[in-house]
Design goal:
The chain is an alpha/beta fold. It is built from 9 helices and 9 strands. The protein has a single domain, classed as Metal-dependent hydrolases (TIM Barrel), CATH 3.20.20.
């Protein structure tokens, strides 16, 4: 029996989520999820609908500490959007704050999100749109200063409508350059399940990219539903674990105090995590 982990959940501490922390924990227990990670949005983009000022660190910290008394299998994290573009603000914000993990993401490129149709209309070819995304992703991982690279091929989540011929081999150089950096910097690769419920119809990144990561020597893999609504919570985890089993991936990583902890996917981890 798999011991599921979901390291990418957004609660109402994120500007775009409707899920209350208490209910998330209840549902984790109901679904026998062994460990969860709350990854709340932290965005410094000046034109963003809700900037980092929406996130209430103190309230979130107190809430998680309270939850841990009865459910220690929870970690407190953030999903930082484009920290490489806002280094000073980002690094200052992190001062004197205790996060268990940080996801690094590219959500905005030149004031447009790569999950929107209009992003692809900005470029002469769809290949240019994808390459521009990977260029920004490269800048993200080259900067680092986070623990997990989130949804590495986010551009394809919606981009499949425009680029049905997307493959690892087509963008091999761009993707390999990114994978080599995260391996060198010990940044974990997230297997993001949100693509399964959207146009991509697949994991973000997909199986071929996961294989490439493993072949290059990568060994830090996390998994997350990237959920914002209750009907998305834990979505795709079973599919992901079936893939892990097929690829002989027997461990995923969770985080505590910014340090990775490897967990067997078929072991009970409750006794390994201390509040």
């Amino acid at each position: 029996m798999y011991k599921f982990v979901d390291m990418h959940i957004h609660s109402t501490f994120s500007w775009d989520s409707e899920m209350e922390v208490d209910r998330i924990v209840e549902m984790a227990k109901e679904n026998q999820i062994s460990f969860i990670g709350l990854a709340e949005h932290l965005d410094f983009h000046s034109q963003h609908e809700k900037s980092y000022m929406f996130y209430n660190y103190d309230d979130c910290f107190q809430k998680i500490q309270s939850i841990k008394k009865s459910f220690p299998q929870i970690s407190m994290g953030i999903e930082a959007g484009e920290p490489y573009l806002y280094k000073d603000a980002y690094e200052k914000y992190l001062e004197n704050k205790k996060f268990d993990f940080i996801l690094g993401s590219v959500h905005w490129i030149d004031d447009v999100s790569p999950v929107e149709d209009r992003y692809f209309y900005k470029y002469s070819t769809v290949e240019d749109a994808y390459k521009k995304y990977f260029e920004e992703e490269f800048k993200l991982v080259n900067y680092g200063n986070f623990d997990i690279v989130a949804h590495l091929t986010l551009v394809h989540r919606n981009g499949r409508k425009f680029e049905s011929g997307f493959s690892y081999n087509k963008y091999k150089k761009e993707i390999d350059d990114i994978l080599k950096i995260i391996i060198k910097k010990n940044i974990a690769l997230e297997i993001n399940c949100s693509g399964l419920r959207m146009a991509a119809g697949d994991f973000i990144p997909d199986e071929e990219i996961i294989k490439a990561y493993l072949n290059l020597g990568g060994n830090l893999i996390t998994v997350g539903s990237d959920s914002h609504r209750y009907n998305q919570l834990f979505y795709g985890l079973n599919n992901a674990y079936e893939l892990f089993n097929r690829l002989k991936i027997d461990e995923v990583v969770i985080y505590k105090e910014r340090k990775p902890i490897k967990i067997k996917i078929k072991e009970d981890i409750k006794n390994e995590i201390k509040s």
